[in-house]
Design a protein that fits this description.
The chain is of the alpha+beta class. The protein contains 1 helix and 3 strands.
Length: 67
């Protein structure tokens, strides 16, 4: 299931931390792996991806920064 949420944050660090909490919470609810991408809005609806959180289904949460 794919979902999209837009949430305003004061800075990237707060957004990344909040996304990590969401990924962990969602991962604990489901036996399936969970991935959550974090980005920043740019002009004209464009997104700059900062990276993503991955929950592997076995309790490991990992941040993968965008290159």
């Amino acid at each position: 299931m794919e979902r999209s949420r837009l949430m305003p944050f004061a800075n990237d660090a707060e957004a990344i931390a909040a996304a990590g909490r969401v990924a962990e919470t969602e991962g604990r609810r489901s036996p399936e792996p969970v991935s959550l991408m974090v980005g920043r809005n740019l002009e004209e609806g464009q997104v700059e991806w900062l990276g993503g959180w991955d929950w592997d289904g076995e309790g490991a949460l990992e941040w993968d920064a965008a290159l």
